[in-house]
Amino acid sequence: MKPSPFDYIRAASTLEALHGLAHAGDDARILAGGLSLVPMLNFRLVEPSVLIDISGIDDLDYIREDDGVVEIGASTRQSALERWDGIAGKLPLVHAAFPHIGHYQTRSRGTVCGSIAHSDPSSELPLCLATLGGEVVLRSAAGERRVAATEFQTGMLTTSKRDDELVAAVRFPVGEPGRGYAFVEMAQRRGDFAIVALAAAASADRIRLGVGGVADHPTVREWDALEGNALDDALNAFAWDLGGYDDVHASARYRRELVRRLGRKVIEEARSCRS
């Protein structure tokens, strides 16, 4: 199939993109990398009247570290973040997740903010953002607001972004001294969307675990430094709370079992990586 007809705006500035959104509202879609949007257009799962291309806006293409946060602009490619000199030291969880994110070719085209905006529950970057307690910067012609990742991702491919807003940037907290980070994923093949993905951050007295691919959005749970049976019980309760679903790739029961088994594995790995 081919897309329905639409008007195309190649925005030369953020202001032009925001004016386009303000004028078109829910009839507009933002194009950055296009890895998710273009297939949806071709299958007519979305039929916008206006497509606003922000891929050439230079002031949205940046990676900045400031006051304990790494901020990434809306047109920044995933490959640019992957190659960023500071990623291993400043964003160790994201660094651990990158080998699981698609393939080199897709990371060269896809944007960091586009993945967050698409909000697939099996996607790695939204899971990392939620686990780290990051933020999404939303901008419209009326102004700017910041939304916590756990409030931004509200359901399957659903966010709290308003129709006239642009995901202008995402903000990842930098790694904390004394805390270890780890990422593990089960997929049919390397580069496929995860059946279950887990991200962990562990300090001497706290555990934070995020799970993707089971509920309709990334879900995060935090505990004291549990050990032994207490940790197994907490993971079991978390798995049941997530529920899960059956599809052609895995059953809900299998997904819950992965949360239990891989949950312990990723937590132990994060503990072993504490600086």
General description of the model:
It is a single chain. The chain has 275 residues and is of the alpha+beta class. The protein has 3 domains: 7-53, Uridine Diphospho-n-acetylenolpyruvylglucosamine Reductase, domain 2, CATH 3.30.43.10; 63-173, Uridine Diphospho-n-acetylenolpyruvylglucosamine Reductase, domain 3 (2-Layer Sandwich), CATH 3.30.465; 180-272, Enolase-like, domain 1 (2-Layer Sandwich), CATH 3.30.390. It is built from 11 helices and 14 strands. The strands form 4 sheets. It has a 5-stranded antiparallel β-sheet. Strands 11-12-13-14 form a 4-stranded antiparallel β-sheet, with helices on both faces. A hairpin with a 2-residue loop joins strand 6 (135-140) and strand 7. The model has no long low-confidence stretch (mean pLDDT 94).
List the helices and strands and how they pair.
Elements lengths: L6 E4 L3 H11 L3 E4 L5 H6 L7 E4 L9 E4 L2 E5 L4 H6 L3 H4 L1 H6 L6 H6 L2 H7 L5 H9 L2 E6 L2 E6 H4 E3 L2 E2 L6 E8 L6 E7 L9 E7 L3 E7 L6 E6 L3 H15 L9 H21 L3
Parallel strand pairs: 1-3, 2-3
Antiparallel strand pairs: 4-5, 5-10, 6-7, 6-10, 8-9, 11-12, 12-13, 13-14
Helix pairs in contact: 10-11
